[in-house]
Design brief:
CATH superfamily of the largest domain: RNA polymerase sigma factor, region 2, helix turn helix motif
CATH topology of the largest domain: Rna Polymerase Sigma Factor, Chain: A
CATH architecture of the largest domain: Orthogonal Bundle
Largest sheet: none
Structural class: mainly alpha
Radius of gyration: 18 Å
CATH class of the largest domain: Mainly Alpha
Number of domains: 2
Helix content: over 70%
Strand content: under 5%
Distance between the termini: 43 Å
Length: 185
């Protein structure tokens, strides 16, 4: 993903070429969808929220100054869209039993694939047990592979604070996974 290209596309959107947002939509729809699925565990809701993000990208395009990454700006909008959704009276639901992780094409045996799927499901369940802020940080930094600097800017925090919070969230996640492994045995 090219930040300079993103900024150029946003300049077009700001100048009235609203259809140019389709370039950004194609580039970021999967990333946003993944973020929303990890945060809400609801695939249908996630599709709607992705659409809402791009409606807001168009609506608030004049507020994008091009001084940072478009991606961080877009994720700030995504966080606001999610918060607005829950503020309107919706409640988070975690469909641990029915939630399926996208299956990765591999040459592994069916047994290996089953084990890999179980591990992914345990990881997603463990992430779901973290409080909202810790879950969000891990999803942004570890799953969305955003840089600490981008996340710090987005959350209005010091970069070192983000690193410490991610470290602590990882420790808590490890503890949850360790507890889960012992309760299975």
């Amino acid at each position: 993903m090219n930040p300079l290209l993103d900024n150029a596309v946003m300049l077009q959107v700001q100048n009235g070429q609203v259809d140019a947002v389709s370039v950004l939509f194609e580039r970021y729809k999967k990333v946003l969808y993944s973020f929303f699925v990890h945060m809400s565990h609801d695939r249908m809701l996630s599709e709607d929220l992705v659409q809402n993000v791009f409606v807001r990208v168009i609506r608030y395009s004049k507020q994008f100054k091009g001084e940072g990454s478009f991606r961080a700006w877009m994720f700030t909008i995504a966080r606001n869209v999610l918060a607005d959704h829950y503020r309107k009276g919706s409640r988070m639901k975690f469909e641990e039993a029915n939630e399926q992780v996208e299956q990765i094409q591999s040459d592994d045996s069916p047994y290996e694939s089953l084990i890999q799927d179980e591990r992914k499901q345990l990881l997603h369940q463990a992430i779901g047990k973290l409080d909202h802020d810790k879950r969000e940080l891990l999803i942004l930094v570890k799953l969305q592979e955003m840089k600490y600097r981008e996340v710090a800017t987005m959350l209005d925090m010091n970069e070192s604070t983000v690193k410490v919070k991610v470290f602590r969230a990882m420790k808590e996640l490890q503890k949850i996974l360790h507890t889960s492994n012992h309760s299975i045995k």
